[in-house]
Amino acid sequence: MLIQSAAAPSGTHHTTVTDRGSFASARCSCGWKGPARRARDRARRDAEAHTGG
Fold this sequence. Notes:
This protein is an alpha+beta fold. About 25% of the residues lie in helices and about 30% in strands.
């Protein structure tokens, strides 16, 4: 499953949350990658924190 969040106001970051087995992780178009999480909600929060949202 692929979950996309809105881009940051500057338009330079585009984050996605992807599932891999039991884990979800956030990634950004700038190259940032969050840790693997068992909870998709936590991975989404990691992405929001990265973009400042």
